[in-house]
Amino acid sequence: MAIQHTVAVLGPGGTGGLLAALLSRSGHRVVCLAQDRTADTLRRTGITVRSKQFGEFTAPVEADTELREPVDACLITVKHTALGAALTRIPPAALGDALVVPLLNGVEHPAALRARYRPDRVAPAVIRVESTRLAPGLIEHGSPFTEVDLAGDAVPRDRLDALAATLTAAGTSARTVGDETAALWAKMAFLAPFALLTTRYGLPLGEARTRHRDELRALVAETAAVSRACGAPVDPAGALARYDTFPPTTKSSMQRDAEAGRPLELDAIGGALLRAAERHGVPAPVTARLVRELRDAGH
Ligand SMILES: NC(=O)c1ccc[n+]([C@@H]2O[C@H](COP(=O)([O-])OP(=O)(O)OC[C@H]3O[C@@H](n4cnc5c(N)ncnc54)[C@H](OP(=O)(O)O)[C@@H]3O)[C@@H](O)[C@H]2O)c1
Fold first, then answer.
1. What's the distance, CA 69 to chain centroid?
2. How many angstroms separate the alpha carbon of residue 290 from the centre of ligand 1?
3. Which family does it belong to (predicted)?
4. Is 261 inside any structural domain?
5. Helices of type H across 92-212
6. Which residue range forms the structural domain that includes residue 203?
7. I need a surface site. Which of 84, 124, 147, 169 has the fewest CB within 10 A?
8. Which residue minimizes the CA distance to atom 32 of ligand 1?
9. Same-domain status, 98 and 238
10. What pLDDT is stored for residue 1 in this prediction?
11. What is the mean pLDDT of residues 229-255?
12. What is the pTM of this model?
């Protein structure tokens, strides 16, 4: 029989709730770390997932407001805007030897986590999925795929491989990738132009990519130049071509957050990109303008 692991999930929302439910369903002990009311709900109802990939199912989870015991891994699945407050739920001393696995978009959070927790246990991951928290304990998983790339240059490879195997056995496609910088910047290079353009103009991808083609091209070129300066391989032509393969109605999650009046991960995406550009002396005027216009609009 497969080994049962104990996995904590900080912020059981769209991504975290889906992974928590999948891990529980495949026989692992899952402890969700959440705000008081959400923890209460999860203890009573478990997590229900409605998924194009996995069907509909409900899985029981434990829930607490704080980590109080050592675990094998702790997935960090809050948004950037909540990261500082949420991390107070994970006292470094409680973690033991656990892997700390942030699945946030962005490139700056791994350093913050390494300053707080054991640097050789922080394993940043990239997740490709579309999953939404409709209510506490109710997750709608819209994409027919759930892909996780696990990285962490200083983390023992066997620990990453073991977690990838656990996540894969639970239903995702998870793998260990060698280069953390490449993994995080590959996601950033795709996400930043798409998120900034669609949110700035309030248009779905189809209209944004045709009506604002020159800006999209410039954003892709700027993001690629910054990525390259940070040491990541880049493929701007490939990125541009990829946007054209998405259905015209596609919206970015930043745009959906803006429409719902939620705080945006603007600083973690656009802000971080501009800080990296400045550090490396790479010009990024179109990115800077869009970020400024979004901030001026109150985001
Ligand atoms: N969703 C996707 O499809 C997707 C895909 C790729 C990458 N990502 C990235 O993954 C990250 C998480 O996004 P998400 O969409 O999963 O976010 P989300 O659905 O908003 O979930 C975040 C969860 O964090 C919880 N939370 C907020 N403040 C907290 C605190 N102080 N303590 C404990 N929990 C707290 C919320 O709890 P409540 O339920 O109590 O409000 C919520 O359940 C983001 O960086 C996003 O860019 C998301």
1. 25
2. 24
3. Belongs to the ketopantoate reductase family.
4. yes
5. 109-116, 157-169, 180-201, 205-211
6. 182-296
7. 84
8. 86
9. no
10. 45
11. 93
12. 0.96
